[in-house]
Amino acid sequence: MRFYFLVFLFLCNFSLLAQTRIPGRVINKDTREPLAYAKIQLGNDIQLLSNIDGSFEIQLDKEKDSLQISYIGFKTIRTEVSRDTRYLQIGMRPNYEQLQTVNISDGRKLANIIIEKAIRNREKNDPEIALNGFRYRSYSKFIIDNENGGMQMQADSTSATMETIINQGRGYLSEKVSEHFYTKKNGRKEKVIGLETAGFEEPVYNVLAMDVNPLSLYKNKYKLYKTDYAGPLGNEAFKNYEYKILDTTSTKRPAYVIYFKPRREMVVAGLEGVLYLDTTSFAIQKAKAQLLGAIRLEVNHNYEYHPEKELWFPSEQTTKIRPGSGGKEIAVFGGTIGLGTVQQKKGVLGVIFGSADVSRDLYLNSVSRTFDIELDYTGKIEKPGAEIYVNPEAIKRDSEFWQENRKIEFSARDEATSAKVDSLIEAGNVRRKIEVKNAIAVGHYPIGFWDLDLSKIFKFSNYEGIRLGVGGRTNDRFSDDFSLNGYTTYGFKDEVQKYGIGSKIYLNKATGTNLLFSVSRDIQETASFYYLKGQNTFAILEPRFVNINFLYNYKRFYAGIEHRITPKLNAEIQVGRQEIWQIRDYSYLHDGKEFTNYNLSSITLSFLWRPFSRFLTTPESNIVLEKNFPQFTGQIEQAISAFGGDFSFTRIGLKAEHEIRNLDRSRTEFILEGNYGFGDLPLTHAFHANPNNPDRENVLRRFSIAGRNSFETMYFNEFFSERQASLHIRHQLRPFLISKSFQPEMVFISRFAIGDFDNQNKHQNISFDTLNHGYSEAGIELNKILAGFGLGAAYRYGAYHLDTFKKNFAFKFTLQLQL
Prior knowledge:
Layout (H helix, E strand, L loop, with lengths): L1 H16 L2 E9 L10 E4 L3 E4 L5 E6 L3 E7 L6 E6 L5 E5 L3 H9 L2 H14 L1 H4 L1 H4 L2 E14 L12 H9 L4 E12 L3 E11 L23 E4 L2 E4 L6 H4 E8 L6 E8 L9 E7 L5 E9 L2 E12 L4 E13 L38 E13 L13 E3 L8 H7 L6 H16 L2 H11 L3 E4 L2 E4 L4 E4 L3 E10 L7 E10 L4 E13 L4 E13 L25 E16 L2 E14 L4 E4 L2 E3 L2 E12 L4 E4 L4 E5 L4 E10 L8 E13 L5 E13 L11 E3 L10 E2 L5 E5 L7 E10 L12 E12 L6 E2 L10 E12 L2 E9 L7 H4 E7 L4
Parallel strand pairs: 1-7, 10-20, 20-33, 38-40, 39-46
Antiparallel strand pairs: 1-4, 2-3, 2-5, 5-6, 8-9, 8-19, 9-10, 11-12, 13-14, 14-15, 15-16, 16-17, 17-18, 18-19, 21-22, 22-24, 23-24, 24-25, 25-26, 26-27, 27-28, 28-29, 29-32, 30-31, 30-43, 32-35, 33-34, 35-36, 36-37, 37-41, 41-42, 42-44, 44-45, 45-46
């Protein structure tokens, strides 16, 4: 069998030898500028377009053939090529008579008129607007390959050479078969019914979250690999692009060939390419877009006409990404690719697929083809909460399933990749990189069966001094049924050891249903309120923690259960008991008795609702594909004077977060939060508004690191509330593009809080103010000046304005590390 396979591979390579690949470039002979999308006709059959840098490549099957290059406004060139041709430099001269005709006939304005009509007809041509519902299947093949991949053979090739060819080149191959559903009521849904990831025993779901095959070019934003590009048919198309008509096709349904080019490259991310627009309906028949920069990106969309609906529906899309002029790596499992003039910087803890020294021939290629299209779908959508749902049987499909559903040729080289890629993945230590990436995303670093908690290693505060510790949790290497977690730390100033130990029992991984148990002894800030859900990020550095000076000791026992009600709604309920004793001289007066130490028994219910975020649901987990806003976090805690509890009170918190992200990378963030408490509420369980200003006379002695949603001019312990509401608004301007490595960001900030407090006399040995008049501050930050550091300032005004400037002013460091 092996012999026949090698013979077949040899024959494939022999056929390749019968073709000659000839590269070339088309330029304006007068200005030496490249001519993008010049039409190149080889013989009578083969037609292609030059790339945006004027480059092209033809494959010559004959000894000699004719070549014709044409471009609007330029004189057509006819020449001959042969197998002896190594490179073609085509210099085209402007045809001034034709250019004059084009200008007289208003060529550029004609292109604008066509684009205007295409935009006006989006409601008729965009399937998601024109149809009430549709359904289709797709087959996708995702490859990381080497451009030359060893597929070049010498005349004296041997079997050993063939084996070498198989073992080099490709680094990754994945196949996917999906059912896609869309209704106007529930939006889009993809159900993955077949998934194969060569070289991995377990499926690599990360690939499903890459956004390499966006469906539509009609939207305002064209999202590709976590970067938003301005849509060439969006509402601000003429602001972001300029257009030129290149040609009209002579097919059964003719099309205008419209060239589009970014108008504001330094402001808005844009692509450069051509649209084939139907001359009757102005719908997209075909599109090609490219980008040259740190990477070389090429996207091709093909559409198929459905006469019964008079609609062009997507039929195939290919996306190819190569290293560009910067020689950047192609990132797959957690790293990011710098795309164009608006680049996403690689995170500090970014995980890159491949070695540090990547071949310039390496490329990423994704092909997706649709079939079994139904344009009158009115059925129901299963599990509409998740945009992508992976069927549990998807990873168990047999060869018969793949033979039936492969709509793109599965070549001998694909077979070789599937058979041999395991050694490549092992050599590249890819499994380990995926493991590290997944753990670091939630603040851990895997060491065998133990995930080390990075946030527990080091902290510093004025109360504890240096706090060193170790903590973490077991991972699936330890058990698939449960995990253990714990930590221990020691403060060298307070000389007290803190600890915690707990477990999580997995009842149902698909729904995130887990039993939780924990015992801990630690310290906590007075009047703090922490949501059980909604703490989605970890912080190695907590700016406020350094200067907190009003804390209390606690020993806590709790049991709970968490459950994912829908992919967009998580909930958790806990039953617990706390023993509390004071660090500072404070007591609570209740029923004529002063309580310094007390016990609390409580029930807490918390939820996190993200109605607009996109999710991937797998048999084992729920993965956030895209975090969209607004999102809502809520919690209610009920303390009861039973089971050893001394007080009865209720605490409620509700937080709404919203973010408006613009194509020019400016954004505006809003955080609106309300807290309400009533009953026998000691100060330890009241509320503060996240103050972050040490109470020192000198401004420079108050110099500290700014928080994201803290009041920078509000002094610690200055205000407490039983009922409060706060609003934070941050508006970041688009980055100043001074250089590729220096792009500082300016942020304008406005914050407001209001609150009230009844019976302040119940709280002994402490004095504080209330927020019943409303607290206001404004600030400005210049971030990412050097290595993530920046500078900020804030000023306090309004009802709680103090008597001198320096008391109202706060000067801050800012720190933004992109992980």
